[in-house]
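User: Quick sanity check before I run a bigger batch. Here is a single chain. Can you write out its predicted 3D structure?
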Amino acid sequence: MSASSLPSLSQERTPILELEVLAEKAANAFRPFLGPEGFDLAQYRQFLNTMYHYTARSGEMIQHAGSKAHDEELKQFFKYMCNEEQGHYLLAKEDLKELGGEVSEEIPQSVQDFHHTWFSLGDTIYAYLGAIYVFENIAKHVQKEGKDLFARLNLNKKQRRWVAVHLEADLVHGDEIIDLCSRYFDNNPSACLEGGRAMCNCWINVFTHFGRA
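Assistant: Done. Predicted structure follows.
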């Protein structure tokens, strides 16, 4: 489903500073792994394996969040996001296959922690709005570094689909969640920030435990 499938957004978007800070903090944890001293090819394969598991339950997780929606606009947004994220985990699997690797049966502990945290965010929609705000606004901070990684590792188009798709699609999704949160944040700012902090920590946890060997 294309971005145009989402109902028309307002022209005036007001980013939420506290959530922007968390998104940038999460991006800063990722940035060194993309840079000149970052992933080698073996580590990039490990990253793809982690991202396969990280996004394999995206549909289920978005549906869980959407079940908390209390009005039609929110219900439509989560339905749209579920369609947008569908099958992204397979891109990581196919990229890894092109590099001679296979996804592991074992789910990395950081991914298990992420899934547990997501399903424990509470019974209101607001924590999930904050969480999605952070996730969808990471990519805008690492556009150059992501493209530099492709060149540094000499990755062809069939070896970089997961990263490339998220670098592009998350620019659109980031604007969409900013628009949505700008109208819902004040209903429960503490829950929005709780969700944002939780997801920032989950993303940082991936790289804290990633390892460089």
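Residues 15-208 form a domain with the Heme Oxygenase; Chain A fold (CATH 1.20.910.10).

User: Great, the batch can go ahead then.
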